[in-house]
Amino acid sequence: MALMGHAFRQVFHLQRLVRTTARGEHEYSEPEPHRCRYEGTMKRVITADGDERLSEGLMRCSVEVRTDDRVFPPGTIPDDEDAGKQPLHIATQYNLMGAVDHYEVYL
Questions:
Q1: Higher-confidence residue: 4 or 6?
Q2: CATH number of the CATH domain containing 48
Q3: Global confidence as pTM
């Protein structure tokens, strides 16, 4: 259990990247619900590609999210393809024992 696990009262949906077709189109798994804590906040972050982008929100969760996954923040519907976002930056947070506590995902 994460130290912040008691604060994860919202639900987001996660679609894992399954494969990329020969035409460059991404195929994702079915959306999975997970608990999180989401804060709508504007912040400049450095993406995995090294670009500087403006983040619309910070989501803390106990499930690992990868940069090529698609995230549907709380309040969005997974059926709406346009509501899915790719994470801009993911920071792993560790507890005092050195084990992974939670992930901070910037969207």
A1: 6
A2: 2.40.10
A3: 0.86
